[in-house]
Amino acid sequence: AAGVIQSPRHLIKEKRETATLKCYPIPRHDTVYWYQQGPGQDPQFLISFYEKMQSDKGSIPDRFSAQQFSDYHSELNMSSLELGDSALYFCASSAAEAGPRGNQYFGPGTRLLVL
Amino acid sequence: AQKITQTQPGMFVQEKEAVTLDCTYDTSDPSYGLFWYKQPSSGEMIFLIYQGSYDQQNATEGRYSLNFQKARKSANLVISASQLGDSAMYFCAIRSGGQGGSEKLVFGKGTKLTVNP
Fold it and tell me: What is residue A46's three-state secondary structure?
């Protein structure tokens, strides 16, 4: 079965640089969630999209932006990177019609290291 | 707001024995879902088991079962016949409320399980 695809899997950037993370949800999933997991931390919700519109927003810095495209893939853009942005970034997808009972399927994550 | 509490930072179990990982939750929503994920050292989040707030029976998936006590707001994960490959971080999460893409997951701090040979 097709899974959530994230690219790149690993990324090394310098401080103040920009980074773009991509997420391709499971086919026919219309909802995408982004989570950030710092070292030794639990995943924290950043932002979500449903049918290409932002549906919820969590603790996402103003330096970050994201969008969902017509083919439902999503991109997380991160500017003016800081050392504290070093983390594992997960994308998850689900079918909104499943509601709270529906599972979110996680991608393998993008490991970002800011030097 | 939803909250998950996992009070066991680390747990140890002997291979082939059973282990229970604790999870309590707080939510004001009548409809919610409780999830357990496994995160090995490689980093991926692996879905293990799900329990819905209106489910009458405790969920089971192979060696995983969920001891759901709604009145106590607890959803403990039971792993039977532990294997060395079960050594990982385990996260309990809740998902509730919202519409169309607003059902974000809220995670606990996790429990690191070590299975000893």
Answer: strand
User: Does A103 sit within 8 Å of B47, measured CB to CB?
Assistant: yes
* pLDDT < 70 regions, chain A: 96-101
* Higher-confidence position of B8 and A31: B8
CB contact under 8 A, B31 and A100: yes
pLDDT given at position B103: 79
What are the backbone angles phi and psi of residue B38, rounded to the nearest 5°?
A: -110, 135
**Nearest by CB to B103, which of A42, A99, A108?**
A99
**What's the pLDDT tens digit per position in B63-72?**
999 999 999 9
